[in-house]
Amino acid sequence: MNVLIVDDDKLARKGLIAVIDWEQYGLCVVGDVQNGKKALEFLENHPVDLVFTDIDMPEMNGLELMKICKENYPETDFVIFSVYEDFSFARQALRLGALDYISKIEFDPEECDAIMKKIVEKYQNKRREKAERNLRAEEDWEGENVRKLEEEFKSGRWIFDENELEKMSEQLSELPLRYAERILVSCFNHLQLSERDKIPAFETMPELLNWIHSWLQNQYLNNSSKTDDISLCIRAVQYIQEHVTESVRAEAAADAVGMSRGYFSTKFREVTGETFHNCVIRYKMKTAAQEIRKGEKSMTEIALELGYDNFYYFSKLFRKEYGCTPGEF
Hints:
Blueprint: E1 2-6, H1 10-19, E2 28-33, H2 36-45, E3 50-53, H3 62-72, E4 77-82, H4 87-95, E5 100-103, H5 112-154, H6 162-173, H7 177-190, H8 205-221, H9 229-242, H10 250-257, H11 261-272, H12 276-294, H13 299-305, H14 311-322
Parallel strand pairs: 1-2, 1-3, 3-4, 4-5
Helix pairs in contact: 2-3, 5-7, 9-10
């Protein structure tokens, strides 16, 4: 730990440096200056952990120095070493966070070892307590964010929306692997997915994300025999994709996947997070965007192919989805 001595009495500074075996306590005196103003100049260019300072000094006293350092150098701790024995000074110093208040008059070199051990112990305890507080705050922050992400992941919307999947993947990648694994397992259990007992142990975050993408791809390729709600809704989305240029109705999709029409609409919204109607529009606008990128058809042709004979209405839906008109896109 680096130590700075601040005292307007040069002999007092040099005497304090000489009388203490600083190295024995893990300390190193990196400088000594004559007042608070000079101390601030020193601190601008030198890292200091502990300042031993007098109170009564010209230009800037020790208490003023402590107040400024509390704002500008909060990691720097103080020990007051002064001739003042007035309790009010000691109280002010301790309120400002001083580790100790030592009277020059009563200071006995023979008691130096006990004094220094007490100061170092207080310094270490203060640092330990701060580290524990920071860790608790970090854990609280992480815990809250993990819980929020877990709830989002449990919604299952990422299964049906590529943008949602991309967002979730990005958020997961920012977490420690153990948290991401916990969210994945919790999500699969909550959604009662058949593979919940087959989630492997992951070595890296990319491995986990690749597994999610592979699992999702497999769901869309091999779900024809599954009858759980997630699989049935995936088949309904596939139905939309296959009939995107048609007037797709919820009744037809329900019949195609073998669900009752009333149950289908409720369950589709519950599982995917959006109504069937909005899902149809999203896929139609996605198809429109793909056709616009190709540049092979006019905007009117694209709108008509997707079932929109009113171009203004088509343009309005496209703007809502992409934030711009088809022409701007």
